[in-house]
Amino acid sequence: MKIREVTSGLSFPEGPIxxxxxxVLLVEIASGFLTRITRSGRIQRLLHLGGGPNGAALGPDxxxxxxxxxxMDFSFSPDGVTRRPGGQPRSYxxxxxxxxxxxxxxxxxxxxxxxxxKLRGPNDLVFDAKGGIYFSDLGKVRPNxxxxxxxxxxxxxYSSASPVAxxxxxxxxxxxxxxxxxxxxxxxxxxxxxxxxxKSAGRIKPEPWPSPQGxxxxxxxxxxKYQRFDxxxxxxxxxxxxxxxxxxxxxxxxxxxxxxxxxPLPDVYPTNACFxxxxxxxxxxxxxxxxxxxxxxxWPIPGLKLHFT
Length: 309
Fold this sequence. Notes:
single chain; 0% helix; four-stranded antiparallel beta sheet; mainly beta; Neuraminidase; 51% strand
């Protein structure tokens, strides 16, 4: 398998969605854009969303649904090449779940709070077969404090959402098993991958104490290297592909957590991945620190085709 550069010059890309025509939709956190990358690698910035668009997915109505974290501070590493995300900026505009009408290129806010609690830093989302949305709120970091985040479920209509598990430390990527019975999420700070058994839409079967939030721990900071977990995707066999920061690459974990493998990549900030292409055998990865979208063709296991893509 060879790594192929699709395009460069992106502003901390995230949330890739592979389309049937060979193009890829993604968001750029640092510049606030929803962007399309053509099959030839041309960058088409479709709409400025502002804030910090962080995760994206196609919904049952053909619209793009976006987790917007409200904005982040960014700086460059001493080499002047790698862009590094930071904490809550002065320009922070509040966290929200948004819907983008691709035909009209219009954005509308959907959910900005859960009950009386405002969303702080929505990060990633996945649709279930019924059209409901599971999404994470990682929270924000400030000089002397850090928010506790949560996982939420918004049923079709998307006028409100309820907690699946709260509070949680830095929940990031979310995904569903091929049969829809398991919800996975990646914990950024501890580089842990967790799994919930789903009882019904938006409801889990919690594990007993000492589980801190009712989830099963699949894997924790493998390889004894400093790393953090970011967003994730799955293949058709149910393996979980977790974008791994600092120990740059993709950590591939079996559904039961018994086996894992690290696939190295040339960036310390690979933030997300998705499958597409012929037979779902191309793995697209956002290398956010260096602003690139790459593709790995001929992946040995087909990717899991998401609902509504």
